[in-house]
Write a structure and sequence with these properties.
Layout lengths: L11 H33 L30 H33 L5 H15 L3 H12 L10 E3 L3 E4 L2 E4 L1 E2 L3 H27 L4 H25 L2 E2 L2 E3 L4 E3 L2 E3 L1 H28 L2 H9 L4 H31 L11 H12 L2 H30 L5
Antiparallel strand pairs: 1-2, 2-3, 3-8, 4-5, 6-7
Length: about 375
């Protein structure tokens, strides 16, 4: 006996699909309307939409640059320099803010009254003041108030602080340096894999886990020795008579301001995420670990923190994305990130819409990459159901 087919107008799946198709059509109509309106307005102003201007000479200099750049280079290379400046701040800022945030978050739960209060004041102060105000404080009240280049603050005869920024030792671009960095990278990867294996062996094979710990410590010492002696370090040299520092790496006041500002500001939010994640772990886990004779450091390292990661990572992803978007405030203190370069390009060429699309697409791609990487990490720490 044949089953009767459900009439199309009574099929719930049909109406769900029809609703989605209708929404897509409405969105396309809206986009088409505003796009046509934009095109008409540009034609009335005598402006032609397009990206052909990217091949023209930029005709402006960029102070901070990772790669070689001259004012005669095209706008496309200027935008690339701005993008690299943005990525430099993002990568270093995310790493520093994560480490500082974890330390402050743990400090918020410390048994030491002084550490707990200092951590609390840090979080409450930085979280409740505007980031832009903090950037101005770092720039005008800290870095621009440092001594002049003729008489800088000196640390270890190799680090100089002045109103022109910070000069630090930096490895030269040689084969020896790259080989040493490759060895350090391999050591870090192997150490992480061994650490992951140690966490799985810690319960049933304590002796094997201890041997793995010794191997990890050995790799850490090996990496540290390569870092110190394997790289071709170039030490800054001060010539006080002419007010010039030769060699090493110079971090401009603008770069230092945006880096320090984003790091300390984002770390305050990460600290609260870490604190909440640790407190989400049942107290019975701590009591059971103490009953087994584990010390406080091992309890946090092997029992509490691995479980807290499942709560920490999702909001931590949002903070990394916020750091990427907040980096656009660098334009306020004169750091040449992609937003600042795009703003200058727009003023010179009149291509405001095109530059806006480039900047929006760039930040969108950066944030999607950050979210994708953190989602992979999030899946790795989740409980696997059988």
């Amino acid at each position: 006996m044949n089953e009767e087919k459900t009439p199309l107008w009574r099929d719930e799946r049909f109406w769900q699909m029809a609703g989605q198709v209708l929404i897509v059509i409405i969105l396309l109509i809206i986009i088409s309307y505003f796009g046509n309106n934009l095109n008409q307005n540009l034609e009335q102003l005598g402006i032609k939409f397009g990206f052909d201007f990217l091949d023209r000479p930029a005709s402006f200099n960029i102070g901070d640059k990772v790669i070689t750049y001259q004012s005669t280079d095209p706008y496309s290379k200027a935008i690339l320099v701005g993008l690299l400046n943005t990525l430099r701040v993002l990568l270093i800022g995310i790493i520093l803010a994560t480490f500082l945030g974890i330390m402050i978050g743990i400090g918020r739960l410390s048994d030491n009254w002084l550490v707990r209060q200092i951590s609390s004041i840090y979080v409450q102060t930085l979280r409740n003041t505007p980031l832009l105000l903090q950037l101005f404080c770092w720039y005008f009240a800290v870095f621009l108030k440092l001594p002049k280049i003729e008489n800088p603050l000196t640390f270890l005869n190799s680090i100089y602080l002045s109103n022109r920024g910070m000069d630090i030792p930096w490895p030269e671009n040689t084969t020896k340096t790259w080989l040493s960095l490759a060895l350090i990278f391999i050591s870090i990867i192997v150490s992480l894999l061994l650490w992951w294996k140690r966490l799985k062996l810690i319960e049933n094979e304590a002796k094997s886990g201890k041997n793995l710990l010794y191997i990890i410590l050995g790799l850490s010492v090996f990496s540290l020795l390569i870092l110190i002696f394997g790289l071709d370090w170039k030490i800054p040299q001060l010539n006080a008579q002419i007010g010039f520092i030769k060699g090493g790496l110079n971090l401009s006041p603008e770069f230092a301001t945006i880096l320090f500002g984003l790091t300390f500001y984002t770390a305050a939010f990460i600290a609260e995420i870490v604190r909440a994640g640790i407190q989400s772990v049942d107290k019975g886990q701590t009591e059971a670990a103490k009953a087994l004779g584990l010390k406080s450091g091992l309890i946090l390292q092997l029992v509490i923190f691995p479980q807290a990661l499942r709560v920490i990572i999702p909001p931590l992803t949002s903070e990394f994305v916020n750091l990427a978007k907040n980096s656009s405030l660098a334009v306020a203190i004169g750091y040449n990130d992609i937003y600042a370069v795009a703003n200058t390009t727009s003023n010179q060429t009149g291509k405001a819409i095109e530059m806006l699309l480039i900047v929006m697409t760039t930040y969108l791609i950066i944030n999607l990459i950050i979210s994708s990487i953190m989602n992979i990490f999030n899946r790795l720490v989740q409980i696997k159901e059988r």
